[in-house]
Amino acid sequence: MRSTSASRTRACSGSTPSPTAATSWSPPRRRSSSPTSPRPATTRCRSTCPSSSRVAAASSAAPSSCAPRPSRAEESPVTAVETTTGTAAGTAAEQIADIEAHAAHNYHPLDVVIARGEGAWVTDVDGKRYLDCLAAYSAVNFGHGHPELLAAAHEQLDRLTLTSRAFHHDRMAEFVTELAALAGKDMVVPMNTGAEAVETAIKVARKYAHDVRGIAVPEIIVAGGNFHGRTTTIVSFSDDAVARDGFGPYTPGFVTVPYGDADALASAITENTAAVLLESIQGEAGVVVPPADYFPRVRALTAERGVLLIADEIQSGLGRTGTTFAIEHDGVEPDLYLLGKALGGGIVPVSAVAGNADVLGVLTPGTHGSTFGGNPLAAAVATAVVRLLRTGEYQERSAVLGARLHAGLTGLIGSGVTAVRGRGLWAGVDIDPEVGTARDVALRLLDRGILAKDTHTRTLRLAPPLVISRDEVEWLLRELKAALQG
Ligand SMILES: Cc1ncc(COP(=O)(O)O)c(C=O)c1O
């Protein structure tokens, strides 16, 4: 079962004390010195070092040679001199102008042009370094350029990258077997983006309803405030006007109830209900954690009525909240897990639906597919991701360091913060309107060498890579406190 295997840890043999608290991993590289702030350059035990000691080191308790080890701890994260790429494309301002002119404006990025990433840090085209506290919306859970993930990608790039599913390839067996085992399920459907995993689950739920339960017009219950992606069907059941308006006609067959309200869900279930589709924690809505009894009640209701429970763990899963899947905190096992983002190791888009054969068995040859889904490169990287998660190290880092993050953030309530939500290294921080909008605070953090992003005007979202160190968490908290002061 995934929860127990994922959280298992072992003692590190042959450990050597490390001089200070750990900092996040990053590959060796040249940097300038400055006496002010922590920096992330470290070495890291690469393969067989077990997890417990690394996590202990992350919390400063028992550093060892397996822990990320700081070198030159006084360097500034914001004054590195090593300029990177981008010169051929012009200055940062010129590149932003070109992007504005030639890329459709479906995003509103902060004005920074990133050229390199290492561990929890990125460097812009001018050589300025930033602690990445968004981690590509949790797609970079394992940090930028994790050596084991890069090695898996490089090795596979040189060998075989794409066959389509018309033929088998030699990375598929280990990928599907190991991912299914991590999820505690029989099988997986490999896809690419998160939205494709959601679409796949919707198709599976409808087909299961038609073929197994004889429902002519199946309905799927979703939650208010949901975010499951950007396809026409998915935005059809979004209640975010910006995401939805103007994209009709909309796909029918969805019923919306308030998130976290099990009574409302109970009332909405009918004989036509095929599935309930929920984020285990609502990320885009502002890192909204449902009440403790919500998922246990939803599980009981759905099981009783033969309704599938689909947990969207695309953002919340794969270590982000301190467990492999966020719904583990609720002691609930869904029928289908939706996975994406971090499954691709921040390298390639990889998503999947994990479930048992009685449900996923409704897919038969020709009913569903994707040219790139489960391709050899994706499979090699995702298998390496699953192996990282199997150690339990990242889940534990998130739990230990997340506890510190949340304690520090909670301490800011009343000083520019009105509420803090989340789990593990994932937080939604509501900003006092007196201080400004969440975007204002994100811009102040940008000046201070921290990347973070707002959601819905008032909420600042923090989701650093799980390789962030305790020192860096402390630094983030200090900088946020200063940014809230203006
Ligand atoms: C919970 C959730 N589901 C689905 C998606 C869609 O994933 P993608 O952007 O890879 O299509 C996202 C993206 O943010 C998400 O947070």
From TrEMBL:
Name the SUPFAM superfamilies on file. Answer: PLP-dependent transferases
Respond yes or no to whether keyword Amino-acid biosynthesis is given for this record. yes
Q: Where is this region: Disordered?
A: 1-85
Annotated Low complexity bias:
1-70
Look up the domain of life of the source: Bacteria
- CDD domains in alphabetical order: OAT_like
What GO MF annotations does this protein's record show? identical protein binding; ornithine aminotransferase activity; pyridoxal phosphate binding
Top EC class, one word = transferase
Query: What family name appears in the similarity comment?
Result: Belongs to the class-III pyridoxal-phosphate-dependent aminotransferase family.
Record-given protein name: ornithine aminotransferase
Please state the gene responsible for encoding this protein: rocD
